[in-house]
């Protein structure tokens, strides 16, 4: 019978263990107390949300991991993560969660908390400013481009002023316009 060769090397650790001393136990309660956070702690880590997510394979932290991180109190890691901002808000995870955890809504809550702390990626701030300045997320093409496409020079009926006024009074308006 062939002998099993024991390695003298210690096993490779692929991720750093969680530093329990840095956990913020209040984070879970904070999210839980938000309008859609009630079912948060019902999560039993089945990973259905991650299986349903069309973008999870691009993420370092998968949806089920983010939910677990919130429960554990990994406030800093969650609120600084790129994943909460890259979420497509497609609700696939939330629709399929057997425990009715409102995964997408919880990620919205995380974004709101991150924004209050100024942890917003520059690309999102730029989009917010554009929305505030133009009333649109996508700029209407220049006149010459519209002409090439045989379109009228101005978009018919486009009225963004009322929207811009409303946006100024919103939290988004305050956050992205705070340096003006
Ligand atoms: S699908 Fe629901 S219960 Fe399963 S891991 Fe995701 S949040 Fe938790
Ligand atoms: S809402 Fe976000 S986290 Fe949920 S499945 Fe869609 S992209 Fe993934």
What do these coordinates show?
The protein has 11 helices and no strands. The chain is an all-alpha fold. The protein is elongated, with a radius of gyration of 22 Å. Bound molecules: iron/sulfur cluster (2 copies). One iron/sulfur cluster (SF4) binds next to helix 6 and helix 7.
Please report the distance between the alpha carbons of the first and last residues: 77 Å
Fraction of helical residues: 40-55%
What is bound: which ligands?
iron/sulfur cluster
CATH superfamily of the largest domain: Alpha-helical ferredoxin
Give the CATH class of the largest domain. Mainly Alpha
User: Low-confidence runs (pLDDT<50, min 5 residues)?
Assistant: none
**Helix vs. strand class:** mainly alpha
The number of distinct β-strands equals: 0
List strands and helices in order, with pairings.
Blueprint lengths: L24 H8 L15 H5 L10 H10 L2 H5 L3 H4 L5 H5 L6 H14 L5 H13 L8 H6 L12 H8 L2 H6 L4
Helix pairs in contact: 8-10
The chain binds iron/sulfur cluster (2 copies).
Question: What are the main properties of this structure?
Answer:
single chain, 180 residues, mainly alpha, Fumarate Reductase Iron-sulfur Protein, Chain B, domain 2, 2 domains, 11 helices, binds iron/sulfur cluster
């Amino acid at each position: 019978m062939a002998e099993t060769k024991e390695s003298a090397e210690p096993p490779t650790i692929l991720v750093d263990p969680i530093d329990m001393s840095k956990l913020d136990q209040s984070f879970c309660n904070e999210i839980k107390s938000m309008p859609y956070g009630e079912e948060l702690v019902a999560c039993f880590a089945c990973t259905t949300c991650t299986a349903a997510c069309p973008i999870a394979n691009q993420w370092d932290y998968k949806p089920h991991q983010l939910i677990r991180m919130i429960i554990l109190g990994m406030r800093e890691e969650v609120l600084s993560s790129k994943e909460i901002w890259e979420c497509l808000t497609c609700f696939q995870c939330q629709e399929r969660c057997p425990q009715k955890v409102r995964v997408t809504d919880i990620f919205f809550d995380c974004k709101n908390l991150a924004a209050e702390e100024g942890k917003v990626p520059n690309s999102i701030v730029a989009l917010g400013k554009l929305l505030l300045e133009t009333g649109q997320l996508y700029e209407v093409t220049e006149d010459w481009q519209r002409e090439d496409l045989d379109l009228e020079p101005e978009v018919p009926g486009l009225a963004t002023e009322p929207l811009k006024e409303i946006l100024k009074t919103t939290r988004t308006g305050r956050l992205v316009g705070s340096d003006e």
